[in-house]
Amino acid sequence: MIVRSRAPLRLGLAGGGTDVSPFSDQHGGFVMNVTIDKFAYATISPSESGLVEFESQDADHREQLDPDAVTLDPGPTQLIRGVYLRIANQLLGGDRPRIRVRAHSDAPPGSGLGSSSTMVVSLVAAFAEYFGLALGEYEIAQLAFDIERKDLGLSGGKQDQYAAAFGGFNFMEFYAGDRVVVNPLRIKEWIRNELEASLVLYFTGVSRASAKIIDEQARNVREGNSQSLDAMHRLKQEAVQMKEALLRGNLQRFADVMQSGWQAKKLSASSISNPMIDEIEALAFANGARAAKVSGAGGGGFMMFICDPGDRVRLVRALSQSAGTLYDAHFTPHGASSWRIG
User: Fold this and answer.
1) Where are any strands of DSSP class E within the chain?
2) 338 inside domain
3) Number of domain units in the chain
């Protein structure tokens, strides 16, 4: 039997960072995001070697291990090993099966599209399918969060796991005690189409480690940095405003909220923007952009721009002269899925 899975990457539209502790624990966090047709994939099959086989296809790295030799040590297959050990210990009664696990993603690490967390969700969904584990979206997302943040000790928030598990447009609420409420939004088709026509997605070519930025944000909250805290509260309220703009189809308001949120986000940590990002943003605004922001923690990765669809060609031509890469992206309504072959 072969099992495959995929989970969608997400664009953070508003409120990003308010899902990170300790802010979400102390004040509650609100996030607006949407998933796109870029995915993280996983495949599980029986091992032919009699060992455990892990393969990160993005890193072109393969390893064969005795099941008892699997650890959480850093490396190209760390996410796969983390999922394997958590599933084995928590849901398989300590049994470590001899299987082959392969994984790859449509986006590079550090893209700002939640690629690492999405990969963990895809892996959890594949393991659940392979071993017949009855896990719903909330359970898959929470398990993925526990693996990445608690078992592996990787810094970050909660929105990526829940976006990948649920899919579509979601307004998310984050509270103390790992309490999360996902509110799927029913966005009218013409609004989705207009937003897709207005969206330009641009990869700066610079992947970044989000941990440094996230750790600075968390430190600013713990230390009561007033500028950072005020910015985080603005981000939280702008997620509410963006939800209302989307539901009403007011895309000019959507662009205004996105731009205001980007300005607030830059105040929450010093390394969220840099001269390269500022230069790309200035180029975009000179060629029809109405709003700009970096998806994810900041510092690099993907940038997204909102423009009038009539200005899209001009904006794309201008950005294509820069060193980065333009990507086509379409919204997808579905979250993580898995299926069996044979």
Assistant:
1) 2-14, 29-46, 52-56, 61-65, 99-105, 169-175, 179-184, 199-203, 289-294, 302-307, 325-327, 337-341
2) no
3) 2
pTM (2 d.p.): 0.93
**Within-domain flag for 341:** no
pLDDT, tens digit only, all 342 positions of the chain: 999 999 999 999 999 889 999 999 999 999 999 999 999 999 999 999 999 999 999 999 999 999 999 999 999 999 999 999 999 999 999 999 999 999 999 987 778 788 999 999 999 999 999 999 999 999 999 999 999 999 999 988 999 999 999 999 999 999 999 999 999 999 999 999 999 999 999 998 776 555 566 666 677 777 777 788 888 899 999 999 999 999 999 999 999 999 998 888 777 666 677 888 889 999 999 999 999 998 875 667 889 999 999 999 999 999 999 888 999 899 999 999 999 997
Q: Are residues 198 and 158 in the same domain?
A: no
The answer to whether position 76 is within a domain reads yes
Are 78 and 126 members of one domain? yes
Q: Pick from 136, 144, 49, 44: which is nearest to 90 by CA?
A: 144
Per annotation, catalytic residue among 19, 106, 146, 160 = 160
Check: CB of residue 11 under 8 Å from CB of residue 304: yes
- Indicate if 66 belongs to the active site: no
